[in-house]
Amino acid sequence: MTNKYEALVTDIDDIDDIDDIDDIDEVVEGAIVLLVDSVTVKCFASYCPLDIVVGERYEVEFEMVLPDGDCVAASQEADVGVEMIGLGFSCIISGFLDGDIFRSFVDFTDQGIHYEYPQFNQKYVKVTVDRIDVSF
């Protein structure tokens, strides 16, 4: 189950214009910067059947794209948030691993982290991700 969140669009980069808004199967890819509950995050817009406008709020869904290999480490701090790595999409997401839900600036479900890293269940962790996908 994927949760939906309200996000404010603060910047758009390389998102193609969509001529036919009624074509909800249109897939548009690009960089988009969102503000979600006071956390700024640069995401990969993987599905966007709408004309997105900077300064507007939208209901969105998030998914982490995990790299191959180890990507989870214990955190010394009890915090949640996102730290971007470089100029691309890679980032470190801080949060709490609560069974099959990774609770951060949003709740990430169905990621399988708790299966691969059971030693971190019920602990604060940092997850290094290739990118965060966002769907509008």
Broad structural category: mainly beta
Number of domains: 2
Summed up, the helix count is: 1
The whole-number mean of residue pLDDT values reads 87
Q: From the alpha-carbon coordinates, what is the Rg to the nearest angstrom? A: 15 Å
The tally of beta strands, per DSSP, is 11
Shape: elongated
**Amino- and carboxy-terminal Cα gap:** 16 Å
Largest sheet: 6 strands, antiparallel
Low-confidence stretches: 15-28
Helical proportion?
under 10%
Throw out a few tags for this protein.
1 helix, 6-stranded antiparallel beta sheet, 136 residues, mainly beta, 5-stranded mixed barrel
Element layout with pairings:
Blueprint: E1 4-13, E2 30-36, E3 39-47, E4 57-65, E5 72-74, E6 81-84, E7 91-98, E8 101-103, E9 107-109, H1 113-116, E10 123-129, E11 131-135
Parallel strand pairs: 3-11
Antiparallel strand pairs: 1-2, 1-4, 2-3, 4-11, 5-10, 6-7, 7-8, 7-10, 8-9
Describe this entry's structure for a reader:
By secondary structure, the protein is an all-beta fold. It folds into two domains: 4-63, no CATH class; 64-135, no CATH class. The relative contact order is 0.26. Helices cover 3% and strands 50% of the residues. The radius of gyration is 15 Å and the shape is elongated. The protein has one helix spanning 113-116, and strands at residues 4-13, 30-36, 39-47, 57-65, 72-74, 81-84, 91-98, 101-103, 107-109, 123-129, 131-135. The longest helix has 4 residues, at 113-116. It contains one helix and eleven strands; from the N terminus they run βββββββββαββ. The strands form two sheets. Strands 5, 6, 7, 8, 9 and 10 form a six-stranded antiparallel beta sheet that branches.
